Automatic annotation (TrEMBL), chain A:
Listed PANTHER family: PYRUVATE DEHYDROGENASE E1 COMPONENT SUBUNIT ALPHA, PYRUVATE DEHYDROGENASE E1 COMPONENT, ALPHA SUBUNIT BACTERIAL AND ORGANELLAR
Catalysis performed (reactions): N(6)-[(R)-lipoyl]-L-lysyl-[protein] + pyruvate + H(+) = N(6)-[(R)-S(8)-acetyldihydrolipoyl]-L-lysyl-[protein] + CO2
EC assignment: 1.2.4.1
Protein name: Pyruvate dehydrogenase E1 component subunit alpha
Recorded GO MF terms: pyruvate dehydrogenase (acetyl-transferring) activity
Function statement: The pyruvate dehydrogenase complex catalyzes the overall conversion of pyruvate to acetyl-CoA and CO(2). It contains multiple copies of three enzymatic components: pyruvate dehydrogenase (E1), dihydrolipoamide acetyltransferase (E2) and lipoamide dehydrogenase (E3).
Keyword annotations: Oxidoreductase, Pyruvate, Thiamine pyrophosphate
Pfam families listed in its UniProt record: E1_dh
Class of this enzyme: oxidoreductase
Subunit record text: Heterodimer of an alpha and a beta chain.
NCBIfam families: PDH_E1_alph_y (TIGR03182)
InterPro entries in the cross-refs: DH_E1 (IPR001017), PDH_E1_Alpha_Subunit (IPR050642), Pyrv_DH_E1_asu_subgrp-y (IPR017597), THDP-binding (IPR029061)
TrEMBL record, chain B:
One Pfam match: Transket_pyr
GO molecular function, one term: branched-chain 2-oxo acid dehydrogenase activity
Cited Gene3D superfamilies: 3.40.50.920, 3.40.50.970
SUPFAM superfamilies per record: Thiamin diphosphate-binding fold (THDP-binding) (SSF52518), TK C-terminal domain-like (SSF52922)
This enzyme's EC code(s): 1.2.4.4
One GO biological process term: branched-chain amino acid catabolic process
Transketolase-like pyrimidine-binding domain segment(s): 1-176
Name the UniProt record assigns to this protein: 3-methyl-2-oxobutanoate dehydrogenase (2-methylpropanoyl-transferring)
Keywords: Oxidoreductase
Organism of derivation: Salinihabitans flavidus
InterPro entries: THDP-binding, Transketo_C/PFOR_II, Transketolase-like_Pyr-bd, Transketolase_C
Enzyme class at the top of the EC tree: oxidoreductase
The keyword Oxidoreductase is annotated on this UniProt entry: yes
Amino acid sequence: MAARKTTAKKPNVSGDELKQYYRDMLLIRRFEEKAGQLYGMGLIGGFCHLYIGQEAVVVGLEATAKENDKRITTYRDHGHMLACGMDPKGVMAELTGRQDGYSKGKGGSMHMFSKEKHFYGGHGIVGANVPLGAGLAFADKYRGNDNVTYTYFGDGAANQGQVYETFNMAALWQLPVVFVIENNQYAMGTSQERSTSTQDIYKRGEAFGIPGEMVDGMNVLSVKEAGEKAVAHCRAGKGPYILEIKTYRYRGHSMSDPAKYRTREEVQKMREERDPIEQARDMLLTGKHASEEDLKAIDKEIKEIVNASAEFAKDSPEPALDELWTDIYAKEVPQGEAV
Amino acid sequence: MTMIEALRSAMDVMLARDERVVIFGEDVGYFGGVFRCTQGLQKKYGEERVFDTPINESAIAGMAIGMAAQGMRPCAEIQFADYMYPAYDQITQEAARIRHRSNGDFTCPLTIRMPTGGGIYGGQTHSQSPEALFTHVAGLKVVQPSTPYDAKGLLIASIEDPDPVIFLEPKRLYNGPFDGDHTATSQGWAQHPAGDVPEEYYRIDLGKASVRREGAALTILAYGTMVFVAERAVRDTGVDAEIIDLRTLLPLDLETIRASVEKTGRCLVLHEATRTSGFGGELIAEVQEACFWHLEAPIVRVTGWDAPYPHAQEWDYFPGPKRAARGIARVMEA
């Protein structure tokens, strides 16, 4: 099988579709900026990993999904939730640890789920979600449908042993899973060069007979095009597919990361030359798919949604004390006589 | 020194003294560790001795075991104790047993450091206290300091120890003492006597507890952050308690515990970890076996609830000074 690099092509989608992608990416960007603000105000505590810069990855892939496809990801998960249609209010309220959050405050930033949207979670442990993704795909294959599971993980997780155990099984059993490696080039504070023996991670699938390709993750259309090919492969019963999507996170690994392991210029250059939202904006304007006024209207709509989610997340009550003990077992198991 | 600086100083001293020592883990080299414990060490000792690994807990532990079997003194970091589970197989089935099953031909003098415990809004994957998973394993030693001074002396002793040591660092104490009152202003180690840490080599032997407060009314057994919670609860209640900081959980300093409980006749056990099958259960069993005829009241434990560590309700979960005070009252009233 050939492993090749995908290059950005001319828009192969309608103006309305492109506008939708622009809107979805902007929603993620503005939502994450707001989350960063709420963190700064002390309304969000603990760990919070922002998706800013990586928006084209999940938006481009969601554009290839159909009803009942599954998705599962790591702890940098807010974008995935918004892109699959989860309610920004519920996501933000989980970030603030409130009763109306998706996990009623039990999970926080890294651990949210939606049965309705077939979102099987953010997961806090690096690489741990990858075998789960293959299991989700197994269940669909077992049931004889053509659903696909998008299993997202990062360049850091790509060195986890369980990823390769999963590759082998997914190929052995021809599971309909798209392994999406969101390669933002830094595993927390350690660059890919410092941690990874070979730089083209997608090529590792060759050892298992899994086709793969490298994708420009800063261009939403490139992502969508590659995603369509991968998904078609899976739906046709040909087994798993690997997409290594080269992307970039503008912010630190988490809110407490000063990101001293890379230069300010490197980040600035990426923002100026490759920003996925700006690229979509340019395509909309030059293709005359949207006017400046149209885009302003989208900006305004997004701002209102995000502000409403923040207000909702601030106003939602703290979870009741009893929530500490709910959903540990199907039926409550009595605690010892504790002081 | 802060506890972070004290740990760094211990590694610095050992890197300088013993060329068999190497330090490695995720983000440990170039970046200096997520909690900065290894900051500057790669620059000082080079990439051959202080280096980054990929995100591979299982192989970090496994490689360390191989190095140790060859006579090196690896000191590896698992970034959070919550990340150690992939390494648990290596730690329990390889590190802990290689001496025994090779009839002493090969040994495993390694140290695995890992930040443990809650109090930093880490939620369920960055707050766990898995000490009982290690104390249950014959062949391991398990250490948890509560001050910078102890952290340095114990880490040096751990690196020098001929057996595998799991070194649990209470991360809430990295930058200052914490008595469980999260509304109070954070304190640094600069004002605390145990923040006074010598630059040079010294060691605190494993297996020796420390009596942090002498008292006659009851014995409180604690380790890590809960030592400060105990001190606070004792101040709040005015009960003349003896507080023992275990420092090493395995091997346990039963002599110090026994002497104290025989004197006081009462015992309270504190830990952050969940209650059922927690290390407190072991402590209570040991105390009642050793001191049954001296006990005047049932032994009580105050622990984390039997629930996953929460994101939103950290201070309802964390066994703070109010619960510890209730525990004291329960032991004293019986």
